[in-house]
Amino acid sequence: MNGSAEMENQRMTRILFVDDEPNIRDGMRRMLRSMRNEWDMEFAESGEAALGVMDEWRSARKPFDVVVSDMRMPGMDGADLLARVKEISPDSVRLILSGHSDTASIMKTVGTAHQYLNKPCDPELLKRTIKRAFALRLLLRDEGLQKLVGQIGSLPSLPVVYQEVMACLQKPNASLGDVGKVIGKDVAMTATLLKLVSSAFFGLSKPVGTVERAVAFLGLDTLITLVLAQGIFKESPPINVPGFSIEKLWQHSLATAGAARIIAGQQGCEKTTLDDAFLAGMLHDIGKLVLAQSIPEQYGKVLAMAGNGIAMHAEQEILQTTHADVGAYLLGLWGLTDAVVESVAFHERPANAMTEGIGLPAIVHAADRLVHCPDQTDPDCEELGLDTRCLDDFGMRERWPVWQAAWAAHLAGGQQ
Ligand SMILES: [Fe+2]
Ligand SMILES: [Fe+2]
């Protein structure tokens, strides 16, 4: 996903930078001069001034796309400003800039900022982050859905896993390993945690690709604050969508994660790819959770129309988008890696991915199919719905029986 200019060629991307320090605003202006043909940039010295600029833009019917705000400012701080922006313009991309001394306060923006950037900000990183976040809109062209997904601060977690995490964190002898294991079983908690540590804010040279490492990186104290005081995880209220079950999604996601890792292992992938495969498998259907939570009525119609079949056609017909696009859009907005975002986007139609190398979207696709039909040894069986032509491109079609046998052995071993 790159090159926002050609993708969004009708108009320039409109960006508002907010910082109370004049040198920082001047520096930012200078650093981003090269973008002036693509970006319409405005600089405000306070949260209040930023709201004024947004008002002007709104009355001139100019939508704004990105708000980059400093965290610590006199008067309205970055967290309050972004909360207001989220209300006024939920589809705008919201980035927060902060120094490391503010780690605790930055956590307050977990539900409002899409990503966090470290101050002083590297201009190239800022350009990349904005371009990438904006390019994602190609995945989700419907403005109503962009708004819905843009305003998601948290997703519902499976109640039993949520309770388990709470109990685990409240134990006097809580261990990071135990907490990580429990969090890693839940789709929403996995995505939220990865959102936090994927941010450039933490300045990690390599992305954190597993829940275990994310937990270890944050440390127990931060995690306890985040979960118990900030409430970053949310126990799912009953989701009333006929045909949708959060338990089933949970089981399916966990199984697909395991199957994707097994397939990647069978393909001789290295450790980081195995981790990516697991994470992408875990999150591949997160779009369903988004749809069930955000538009339960319409999503209910989709499921009724799809019956027992694959819901992609019904989604396309009723929503003009798919759970794959919705999920990828959310994860991209939250700063997860391209490998994961792409695998989620193309897990149903891996042939549309432009991946080179190992073909992670194809692996996640195969894992998803394998979990649906664990006994199917024939890759061409129609019920399986495997895109064998795509697998052919990676020389992987004949590998199906090997994967199927490995998954069957795994299941027989009683591990999930
Ligand atoms: Fe799916
Ligand atoms: Fe799936």
Which descriptors apply to this entry?
416 residues; alpha/beta; Rossmann fold; Hypothetical protein af1432; five-stranded parallel β-sheet; 21 helices; globular; disordered N terminus; binds fe (ii) ion
Describe this structure in words.
The protein has 416 residues and is of the alpha/beta class. The protein has three domains: 4-138, 3-Layer(aba) Sandwich (Rossmann fold), CATH 3.40.50.2300; 159-235, no CATH class; 246-412, Orthogonal Bundle (Hypothetical protein af1432), CATH 1.10.3210. It is built from 21 helices and seven strands. Strands 2-1-3-4-5 form a five-stranded parallel β-sheet, with helices on both faces. Strands 6-7 form a two-stranded parallel sheet. Helix 3 runs parallel beside helix 4 (78-88), helix 7 (143-150) crosses helix 17 and helix 9 crosses helix 11. The protein is globular. One fe (ii) ion binds at residues 252, 256, 284-285, 368.
Radius of gyration equals 22 Å
Content of β-strand: 5-15%
Overall geometric form: globular
Uncertain segments = 1-9
Query: How are the strands ordered across the major sheet?
Result: 2-1-3-4-5
Order of helices and strands: HEHEHEHEHEHHEHHHHEHHHHHHHHHH
Oligomer: single chain
What small-molecule ligands were found?
fe (ii) ion
The number of helical runs is 21
CATH top level of the largest domain?
A: Mainly Alpha
